[in-house]
């Protein structure tokens, strides 16, 4: 069958997909966030379900409607996303990290709203590193043969950065797309190259996020079978 043609090749498989963007709270009303819409992760969840998989979608701050037949686990922060992924991973044949995970979080959370003080400049916000979920699940595979997929949005030297990142993360596949002000974030469409740890490169032409999702599942299914 040609790429991009839906077939029930994921029947009997359980896949975990993370989507959206984490929010790292500063105080009860403010957070550090990012521009991920969740659309690519939801497209992955929808297409996997259409191909017969049981799907757990770990959704970080997304307001998109839950795809039919998909088990949605809502989370807020990177630490919560990590807990949800680690809880779901032991039963998963594949884990796809499409979520935009904040690299840093505020070192401290103010239990009360941070207020301005007369005549004073604000305190700097100290940040600490968040755990690297993709690197962690790639290093400690919850089951043998589990396929782990990462996403990377890059601006310069897209492919070289992607290759280096694939190695560093230790995942099987890395979907690399080029981002800019008008590209990818919030858009219905995407364009990417999927790099494989085996040296493969699969270009996906500019098109709907569903088409990229289908190619990701084609590559995952090849590795599972
Ligand atoms: N990721 C993750 N945990 C983090 C950061 C990222 O699991 N703390 C995952 C993302 O979900 C994505 C992949 O890692 O699948 C790549 O994210 P990216 O931000 O491109 O990678 P970083 O290692 O954070 O590199 P950079 O410094 O370029 O942001
Ligand atoms: Ca990052």
From TrEMBL:
Record text on cofactor binding: Binds 1 FMN per subunit.
Alphabetical UniProt keywords: Decarboxylase, Flavoprotein, FMN, Ligase, Lyase, Magnesium, Metal-binding, Multifunctional enzyme
A cellular-component GO term for this protein: phosphopantothenoylcysteine decarboxylase complex
Chain segments carrying region Phosphopantothenate--cysteine ligase: 15-225
Keyword Metal-binding: yes
Pathway the protein contributes to: Cofactor biosynthesis; coenzyme A biosynthesis; CoA from (R)-pantothenate: step 3/5; Cofactor biosynthesis; coenzyme A biosynthesis; CoA from (R)-pantothenate: step 2/5
Binding site for CTP: 103, 113, 131-134, 151, 165, 169
GO BP: coenzyme A biosynthetic process; pantothenate catabolic process
Catalytic activity: (R)-4'-phosphopantothenate + L-cysteine + CTP = N-[(R)-4-phosphopantothenoyl]-L-cysteine + CMP + diphosphate + H(+); N-[(R)-4-phosphopantothenoyl]-L-cysteine + H(+) = (R)-4'-phosphopantetheine + CO2
E.C. designation(s): 4.1.1.36, 6.3.2.5
Entry keyword Transferase: no
Source domain of life: Bacteria
GO molecular function: FMN binding; metal ion binding; phosphopantothenate--cysteine ligase activity; phosphopantothenoylcysteine decarboxylase activity
DNA/pantothenate metabolism flavoprotein C-terminal domain boundaries: 10-222
Cofactor(s) the protein requires to work: Mg(2+); FMN
Function: Catalyzes two steps in the biosynthesis of coenzyme A. In the first step cysteine is conjugated to 4'-phosphopantothenate to form 4-phosphopantothenoylcysteine, in the latter compound is decarboxylated to form 4'-phosphopantotheine.
Family classification: In the N-terminal section; belongs to the HFCD (homo-oligomeric flavin containing Cys decarboxylase) superfamily. In the C-terminal section; belongs to the PPC synthetase family.
Name of the protein described by the UniProt record: Coenzyme A biosynthesis bifunctional protein CoaBC
Organism: Streptomyces cahuitamycinicus
Gene name linked to the record: coaBC
């Amino acid at each position: 069958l040609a790429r991009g043609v839906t077939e029930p090749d994921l029947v009997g498989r359980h896949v975990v997909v993370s989507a959206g963007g984490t929010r790292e709270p500063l105080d009860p009303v403010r957070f550090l966030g990012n521009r991920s819409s969740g659309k690519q992760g939801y497209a992955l969840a929808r297409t996997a379900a259409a191909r017969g998989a049981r799907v757990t979608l770990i959704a970080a701050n997304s307001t998109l409607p839950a795809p039919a037949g998909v088990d949605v686990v809502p989370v807020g922060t990177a630490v919560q996303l990590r807990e949800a992924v680690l809880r779901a991973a032991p039963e998963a044949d594949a884990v796809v990290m499409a979520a935009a995970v904040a690299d840093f979080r505020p070192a401290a959370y103010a239990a009360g709203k941070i207020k301005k003080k007369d005549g004073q400049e604000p305190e700097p916000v100290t940040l600490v590193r968040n755990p690297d979920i993709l690197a962690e699940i790639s290093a400690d595979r919850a089951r043998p043969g589990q396929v782990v997929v990462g996403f990377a949005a890059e601006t310069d030297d897209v492919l070289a950065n992607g290759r280096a990142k694939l190695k560093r993360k230790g995942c099987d596949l890395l979907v690399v797309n080029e981002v800019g002000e008008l590209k990818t974030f919030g858009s219905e469409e995407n364009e990417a190259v999927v790099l494989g740890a085996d040296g493969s490169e699969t270009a996906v032409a500019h098109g709907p996020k569903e088409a990229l999702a289908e190619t990701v599942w084609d590559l995952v299914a090849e590795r599972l079978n």
